[in-house]
Amino acid sequence: MIVRFLGTHNAESKSTRLVSLLIDDVLAVDAGSLVSELTFSEQEKITAILLSHGHYDHIRAVPAFAFNNSDRTTKVIATKKTLEILSSHLIDGVVYPEFTSEASFLRKATLKMVQLEPFKPRNIEGYKVRALPVQHNLDGVGLEITSGGKTLFYTGDTGPGLSSVWANISPQLMITDLTWPNRLSNAAEDAGHLCPEMLKEELIEFRRVNGYLPKVVVIHMSPQHKPEIEKEIAEVARSLGISIDIPNEGEELTL
Q1: Which among 205, 220, 124, 136 has a CA at the least distance from the CA of 169?
Q2: What is the rounded CA–CA span in Å between residue 203 and residue 131?
Q3: Tens digit of pLDDT for each residue in 199-209?
Q4: The pLDDT of residue 101
Q5: What domains appear along the chain, each with residue ranges and CATH number?
Q6: Distance (Å, rounded) from C-alpha 154 to C-alpha 135?
Q7: What are phi and psi of 177, to 5 degrees?
Q8: Is the pLDDT of residue 251 over 90?
Q9: Which of 21, 31, 71, 211 suits 55 as a labelling partner, its CA being 20 to 30 A distant?
Q10: Percent of the chain with pLDDT over 70
Q11: Angstrom distances, CA of residue 199 to CA of 84, 215, 249
């Protein structure tokens, strides 16, 4: 699997983009910056969009994608709660057209909603996908994605307390939330996010449960605190004896 990081931050600016990943050019994971980082021809290759939860910064580009690719129908795969939020708050016939309905101005459905049930594996365009509940509101889930004998786990937005998740996965790659520095740990926990010290404890627990640590990549960083977070995450990596990558927009990783 080739993972392309379209957006890796929790705030948008001229140089930072909201979270969105692209796997093998065909499977999108979250849609914060899905269209703004891709050409029209690159968008045409995407056959499905996975969503971790219904917060705006993770679903924002779904309507724009539907506009740009109105000549076909693209699957949007998420939990029931996330699909309800998307349908009632964005593609609701008011803010944007109801792209799932043949009654829209396009006279056909350009998005097909597919419900993903937690813990139940589903084949999505040749990828085995499982949703696992994490510590975030709006019924946030992490996404386990397997293809060609390789597995990655994307936590989506999450706070601490993931031991039950760790007992259900054994990925080679973990792409995890890391939003704020340690001095804002209370805010991070209240909002359902991680800081470096929290991530360290979660990784220690993962190693206790599974006997190893996968390759770790952190995203959803607050760009205003980037130097502070980078220093703290480097210390976490040293203490655990592993490398922890912090990708920028446009970077790729091969698993």
Answers
A1: 205
A2: 20
A3: 999 999 999 99
A4: 81
A5: 2-254 (3.60.15.10)
A6: 13
A7: -60, 135
A8: yes
A9: 71
A10: 99
A11: 30, 14, 22
